[in-house]
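Customer escalation, tier 2.

The customer says the design service returned an amino acid string that "doesn't look like it belongs to this structure." They asked us to rerun it and document both sides in this ticket. The original structure tokens are below, unchanged.
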């Protein structure tokens, strides 16, 4: 497996007040492999979003390097596509036009844009909704459109910052399983930030457990649970054991944060 994205000795501090810095990340080293689904998991404030934002090129490291295919990222790079919590769709365009956005920006001919969009609309389970407008869809369906649009833009790495946090628990659960299936089908490299252990267990090949103050990597856990990670797998002893192991790594940080 080849490394596609890499953080090497990355630290990041933010100036909050005059002469006061917050060390959001300290000496983080992480390789993301091509075609893997990697989750960044940890309590609030452990630097998950900061690391993801650096992978997206939104903000540079204070120290160290972020490399995409061994070359430092120096700004926003279309090869790393970000999916946010809010759907950020164009409300005046249909589902199809929204999903066609990336291919159109790349200058693909109209018939190709349409066929790429059609493929991903199908893949996210929105067959029959291509001519609907975002306002005519539920939150879960809108997030499916966002996902299809991100996939159609064909980034090499899909970066997702708590993409399902705004959804109700049941929709979230369905979309976690769907995202896992879509990633297997598309073979896209995905880095997903989450607070949710179950979300990481459903989707990830590897789970990077982070700890706060300053943000650091505490453990990298290989998730070998069998796929698809449906309800039977979720009720298995192996699931419970892995969840317990991860929770024992995070629990102290959560109570520390809450106190
Ligand atoms: N733009 C900023 N300015 C100042 N401090 C920041 C900024 N962004 C992040 N921080 C600080 O850096 C630390 C890490 O924040 P970050 O949002 O990356 O953590 P997180 O793990 O994603 O948290 P959450 O799960 O709550 O979103 C926190 O202490 C936060 O207050």
């Amino acid at each position: 497996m080849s490394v596609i994205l890499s953080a090497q000795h990355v630290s990041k501090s933010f100036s909050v007040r005059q002469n006061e810095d917050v060390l959001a990340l300290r000496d983080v080293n992480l390789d993301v492999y091509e075609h893997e689904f990697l989750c960044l998991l940890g309590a609030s404030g452990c630097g998950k979003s900061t690391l993801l934002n650096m992978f997206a090129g939104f903000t540079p490291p204070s120290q160290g390097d972020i490399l995409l295919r061994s070359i430092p990222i120096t700004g926003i790079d279309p090869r790393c596509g970000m999916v946010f919590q809010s759907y950020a769709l164009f409300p005046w365009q249909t589902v199809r036009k929204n999903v066609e956005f990336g291919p159109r920006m790349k200058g693909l001919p109209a018939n190709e844009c349409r066929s790429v969009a059609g493929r991903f609309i199908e893949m996210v389970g929105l067959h029959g909704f291509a001519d609907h407008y975002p306002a005519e869809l539920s939150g879960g369906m809108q997030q499916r459109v966002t996902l299809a649009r991100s996939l159609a833009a064909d980034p090499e790495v899909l970066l997702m910052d708590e993409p399902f946090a705004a959804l109700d628990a049941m929709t979230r659960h369905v979309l976690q399983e769907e995202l896992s299936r879509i990633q297997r089908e598309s073979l896209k490299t995905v880095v997903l930030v989450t607070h949710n252990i179950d979300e990481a267990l459903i989707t990830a090949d590897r789970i990077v457990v982070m700890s706060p103050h300053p943000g650091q990597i505490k453990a990298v856990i290989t998730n070998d649970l069998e796929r698809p990670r449906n309800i039977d797998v979720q009720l298995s002893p192996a699931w419970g054991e892995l969840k317990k192991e991860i929770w024992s790594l995070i629990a102290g940080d959560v109570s520390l944060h809450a106190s």
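Tier 2 assessment: The sequence is consistent with the input. The pocket of adenosine-5'-triphosphate is lined by residues 14, 16, 22, 24, 42, 44-50, 195, 215 (CB under 6 Å). Strands lie at 3-17, 20-33, 37-42, 63-68, 71-72, 80-83, 157-161, 189-194, 206-211, 216-222. Sent an explanation to the customer and offered a walkthrough call.
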